[in-house]
Design a protein that fits this description.
Number of domains: 2
Oligomer: single chain
Number of strands: 0
Order of helices and strands: HHHHHHHHHHH
Structural class: mainly alpha
Number of helices: 11
Distance between the termini: 35 Å
Length: about 230
């Protein structure tokens, strides 16, 4: 399935209009999460790149790029070994970047529990820059949508779902999806409505929030918001 955000949303809306609500989430739920995760990864990637760019060191940089290449080639164990060495011996930004990338490789291997634990550890480390801690918390929160409870997602990221936080749009979307997955449609509606009501919400995030509000309305399990 091609992850073109606009065409994906149109396809879901066509399902709704054709009165096939029963299978919509079963068919599209995982894809909704994946599409949104791509946005989160992109945002976190920008934060990490800026951090890396401010702390470049040629030798460690070459090692980090080599480890990333191994991960991109799905040589996960080799990548983890290289990243572990860089975490222990690297300078500047690289130990932190190595930890973040190693957690991502754990997720890539299918070990969500290890990835969540690693991201949570980074998120609690006061020696790590705040922006990177927030990026780690977001990654943990999104992994927990599929691999944990709403309460776990909330514990990881709800503190970021507040006005002014750079990750608030992604945090609200993750909390809305976690609520929806847990069957709490009223709570899910509140989170998705908060995205729609925020004039600074990115268009793709707002579009997905509108789509989820349509799904919730079609389910009949939560009252529509009063305008």
């Amino acid at each position: 399935m091609a992850f073109n955000d606009d065409s994906f949303i149109r396809e879901v809306n066509e399902e709704l209009r054709s009165d096939q609500m029963k299978g919509v989430w079963r068919r599209f739920g995982r894809y909704i999460i994946v599409v949104a995760i791509l946005i989160v990864v992109g945002t976190a990637g920008k934060v990490l790149y800026e951090y890396w760019d401010d702390n470049r060191s040629s030798g460690a940089g070459d090692q980090f790029l080599a480890a990333m290449k191994l991960a991109d080639e799905n040589k996960n164990d080799e990548a983890l070994a290289a990243l572990d060495k860089l975490e222990k011996e690297g300078h500047g930004a690289y130990p932190v970047l190595a930890r973040m990338r190693a957690a991502t490789v754990q997720a890539q291997k299918g070990d969500a529990a290890a990835a969540v634990a690693a991201f949570n550890e980074i998120g609690k480390d006061n020696g790590v820059p705040a922006a990177v801690r927030d990026a780690a918390k977001m990654r943990a929160g999104w992994l927990l949508i599929e691999n944990g409870s709403y309460e776990q997602v909330s514990a990881a990221i709800e503190e970021m779902a507040v006005p002014g936080n750079a990750f608030r749009h992604s945090a609200r979307e993750a909390l809305g999806l976690a609520s929806y997955k847990a069957g709490n449609m009223a709570q899910a509606r509140q989170w998705f409505q908060s995205i729609v009501d925020d004039t600074d919400s990115p268009r793709n995030v707002s579009n997905r929030a509108h789509m989820m509000l349509d799904l919730i309305t079609a389910s009949g399990k939560a009252p529509a918001a009063q305008g």
